[in-house]
# Entry
Amino acid sequence: MLLQRLREYSERLPLPPSLYAETPIRYVIEVKPDGTFGGLTDTADPTERKNRRGVPRLAPQVKRAVGIKPLLLADNAEYTFGLAREGSRPERVESTHEAYLELLDECLVATNAPEVAAVRAFLTAPGWDEGTFPEDFDRAAMSTFRVGEQFVTDLPAVQAFWATTNAPDEGAIRMQCLTCGQERPVLERLQTVIKGIPGGQTSGTSIISANASAFESYGLTASLTAPTCSDCGERFTRALNDLLADQHSRIRFDDSVYVFWTRADQTQALAPLLEEADPAEVKLLLESVKTGKRAVGPEPERFFALALSAAGGRAVVREWIDTTLPEAEEALARWFRRQGIVDGFSEETRYFGIKSLAGATVRDWRDISPPTTRTLLRAALTGAPLPMDMLAAAVRRTQADQGVNAPQAALIKLVLTSQDALNSGDNGDEKEDNMTGLQADYPSIGYQCGRLMAVLESIQRSALPGVKAGIVDRYYGSASSSPAGVFPRLVKGAKPHLTRLKRDKPGAYVALQQRLEEVSVNIPPVLPSVLSLPEQGSFALGYYHQRAHDRSRAMAAKARVAAGQATDQDRHDADVDEEDSND
# Structure
């Protein structure tokens, strides 16, 4: 199904000539019509990334293994001129150049093109040698030929010859093509390669290949394990390369890449949303799904997502999702609703893309594991619940960081709400504001303990401005897992801080004493000795929500005080020292 969907996608692409691909061409050899040398143009531009190896041009391309396989009229110096690169064996260099000239002779016979004849005359003339080229001539770079104003590789006759030369011969195995379903000559090895998969060879990778007997069956080797005709093999490879090259249809990570497309030629912007989660675009998606504006037509549009990594010269399919566009949009909207979290410094709701959520589980971006991103992708596009081990990773990260930032809070909320929906049989119609911000009456001991931690932190901070190692720095990890052994000590330690505030900052004392009483009402007399994993996640949410709520309330109170519109409560709240957290 995957290869068939890619081939369908290729039907709407402006495909280049068969077995041609855009490749950096550094040197353009000018040849006069009589076969004499007319000059050399070096197209490389080190200041531009796209052109640092030469200007990209459509040129003959097929996959080359260890054997000798010349590329017609566009190859490196060993093939084209017989000039050895460093470390090359002289006998192999001679063989590659001979193969190149033999292919050129065949092309001349087949096309009878004067431009091909001019190049052939130039390469076999005795009047040129290594001195024809500059001292810094890069023998590994690609060279092509221009006769007059005509690039020889652009001639239709040359392009047709190249396609015919590389077509399966009459002795090739005939089988039913796995993609188009027709009985045709099939390829022992795919001729085109996939470019742009992280970790793959720079020369490209193949999506069908068997390099060991363990991967072979019924005596079929190499690409014959999944029989593919020449046309289909080229088409689905070109389709995949097009998707990989378009930043609107792919998300790239250090070790994998994701591509997205629809069956029809219509614009869809789910990939950018999954990567960046722009708040305005997320709100537009949520509204359009809620009102049903995107569901058009009698049959829903198909939507496809593919995750790829590479192992040497082979592409590895890590995830394949085949669904409808409305279903994918509904699942994505639900995914955003479930993770939406209040901003730590305002009343706005924040949403996060896959990379930010995956980063909430690790200390460094480079430590993100591929299964984490793939799990998030599947959850986003199918509505699948996130596993508890992702919650465990996020909770461990908060305990190591001694605090909670917004992506961590969002991921924890996402796991908890998706698991709640799974356990309750919810169809995804959760309230959009569920656990986005502070919920004072939320029935979770872990959540209420997290709130208490935030209030005790505010008390200490207001009483001891500039304290370097506060209670959160010292006790967050143990308090979030074993509250019974920590909170009695912390509450006792807050009493002298409140006494100091009552003397020095009576407004802050009143505000914080009120908060402490509000939270304490929901704390049982006997705290549990150990919190379960979900409760530890709720602890992190309670702490984050309370900190965000208190900070927002203090900022609003200070604004009203400055505007001369403050109440007594505003003056109390404005007196509380709410310094920035690690958000």
In short: The mean pLDDT is 87. Residues 22-165 form one domain.
